[in-house]
Amino acid sequence: MFPTSALKLRDDLARGEISSRELTEHYLNRIEQQRDLGAFVHVAEDAMAAAAAADEAQVRGQLGRLHGMPTAFKDLNDVTGMPTTYGSAAIDHPVATRDHSLVAQLRSEGVVVLGKTQVPEFGLSSHSENLVAPASRNPFDPTRSSGGSSGGQAAAIAAGMIPVGPGSDGGGSVRIPAAACGLIGLKPSLGRVPTDVLDGYVDPLGAPKLAVSGPLAHDALDAALLLDAMRGKDHYLPLLQGSYPERLNELSIGFSTHSPFESVYDISISPQARAAFDRGLKLLGQRHRVQPADMNYAEDYPQTFATVWTNGLKDVPINDESLLGELARDYRRRAAGRSLEQNLQAGSRLKQIAADFVRQWSAYDVIATPAMATIPPLLGHYTQGDADRDYMLQCQYTPYTSMVNVASVAAITIPVMTTEDGLPMSIQLISPRSDEGLLLALAAQMQL
Predict the structure, then answer these.
(1) What's the whole-model pTM score?
(2) Is 143 within a domain?
């Protein structure tokens, strides 16, 4: 039986105590045994050959930070030799002839790619259900969602199909599935992972880019290991392995359940989410100064965010509009109907809202919120009505995530309890100063 710790596996691989072939075969078997979870949409045919090449390179001493480590990528990232569907039946699914920049970076660190994992259509949603392949299910309750858009990744890690994996987060897409599946989910600040900003820090509307890449992992050390590999430099793992987590005390932590979506939707916290929030605050209070924070968010945030979030849909080349999901079809139509001036105004306004978020949060070292407002929803929860209902339900489940993307700062979700029904529940911590090391150290403290 192999350890669940990616760090332990990394060390065992480096010492030659296990081979990449052994490890890869183990995880491929786990993927096959758990196909009903729907985590994977494509399994690599050359994984064992890649593992053999990693073992041969091991003999020559050519080692990256994750040498021989099996992992997978979301089906939003091109991986050479595999189709990319973006979770949509309405577009072509060409076989990629080159790797996405993040894939290329992690290949350079020695990973063995086992395949592609399930996402919502175009990564839009907080679930991982689409018309391309079976839905990704929650390993703790297969009738429920594993979250999104990195839902297949989270399910795969939680179910032991891969030890650790990268996700992407444009409105909560790392933190949502991490919370649903009992994992650490880190959303780095914009630019912390260099491949995220190869084409700049702003989108075509002049707003800060929303999407960044971040690690999903069982614990803080594994998340730090993967983040260092994604960046191509050692920093976060040595920080956590040193005395920093033990020395970190007396932070000012402000907690709040206010959401910027309150101006248009009823945002209520379920008893399970409230219990997890209280549990997380109690753990934080053992070392730090925890106090209520009075937040006042802009009332036009929901519409402004939705405009910027969905604007790119109008430019996607679609083969058959009838094969689009309701959310993508409706929001694509709305995006096409907006003028350039309206879009630019939305981008400018979102920058102002972002500055106000950071201003308010910066009165504290860390802001704590519930991770999610409820337990993970049942499969099909979002898609029974029209696009507006879908969007509302997503905001009501995830009322605290997208504001972090807008602010371009760092945040982490940390599992803190399990419900009576066996579902993991988490708390979210936000660093207004974009200090990922501090967030990882807090996670390490809380997971002891």
Answers:
(1) 0.98
(2) yes
